[in-house]
Amino acid sequence: VQLQASGGGLVQAGDSLRLSCAASGRTLYHMGWFRQAPGKEREFVAAISRSGSITYYSDSVKGRFTIAREDAKNTVYLQMNTLKPEDTAVYYCAASARPWVSVSVIVTPFYDYWGQGTLVTVSS
Q1: Which end of the chain has the lower number of beta carbons within 10 A, N or C?
Q2: Shortest CA distance to 91 belongs to which of 2, 8, 3, 1?
Q3: Rounded to the nearest 5 degrees, what angle is found at the Cα of 32, between the Cα atoms of 26 and 37?
Q4: pLDDT reported for residue 102
Q5: pLDDT exceeding 70 applies to what percent of the chain?
Q6: Bridging pattern class, strands 17-23 and 9-12
Q7: pLDDT of residue 93
Q8: Given this model, what pLDDT does residue 98 score?
Q9: pLDDT tens-digit readout, 50-74
Q10: Which is it for the CA torsion 9, 13, 17, 19, positive or negative?
C-alpha cells in the first residue's frame, strides 16, 4: 500500500489544521500518525484501529488532536486544534497489518508502510 500525507503548512499558535493520509488501496490496516522535529527522534502522535473503534493518543496531543478514518475514501485524518510551537514537525502517516496491541502501536516497528511526510510549522 502507498500512503500520501498532505495538509501541512504554516500556522500560528492556537490555530487548527487537518492532515490527510490517502492510501492507494483499501485501508484494511491500523493507521498511525507520527511526527519528527528537527534533531529529534520520530515520535508517536495518534493511532486508530482497523475498525475505527479504538483510538490512542500521546499525552502531548490528547484533547487537542483527533484521529479519524473514512474508509470509503481510503483516507485517515488528523485534526489538530490549539496548535503549539512545539507541535512543529514533519508528520508521517503509517499503516500496520499486525494485531492491535496498545503498547505496540506507539512504536515505529509496528508499522509496515509509511507515507512521505508533511511539514507542519506553528509560529508563536
Answers
A1: C
A2: 8
A3: 135
A4: 84
A5: 98
A6: unpaired
A7: 97
A8: 92
A9: 999 999 999 999 999 999 999 889 9
A10: positive
**Among the listed residues 115, 91, 94, the one whose alpha carbon sits nearest the alpha carbon of residue 9:** 91
Residue type, 21: C
Q: Which residues pair with 66 in a beta bridge?
A: 79
3-class secondary structure for 22-53?
Answer: EECCCCCCEEEEEEECCCCCCEEEEEECCCCC
Q: Supply 113's cell numbers.
A: 508502510
> What does the longest C-alpha to C-alpha distance in the chain come to?
40
79, 85, 90, 91: CA torsion to nearest 10: -20
In the prediction, which pLDDT does 27 show? 61
pLDDT in tens, 27-41: 689 999 999 999 999
Query: What is the distance, to the nearest Å, from the Cα of residue 48 to the centroid of all Cα atoms in its chain?
Result: 9
